[in-house]
DUF1508 domain-containing protein (Methylobacterium gregans), 61 residues
Amino acid sequence: MARSPQPGRPHVAPCPDKPGTFRWQIQLEDGSVVRAPYAFATRGGAELSADLWMKQLRATA
């Protein structure tokens, strides 16, 4: 994932390690980055997972 996402927003991109799959990453306001623990078969699956992670991150903030 070469492009850095906007802080607090998930970014989904093709997985460089597993062609045909997708991963997400979320850059937090403090500059740290949370990455998907594994690749997803579809972009939609990765987006759904990223949305759920965002909800959890907001709930624990």
In short: Residues 25 and 38 are 11 Å apart (CA to CA). Helices lie at 43-60. The two ends are 25 Å apart (CA to CA).
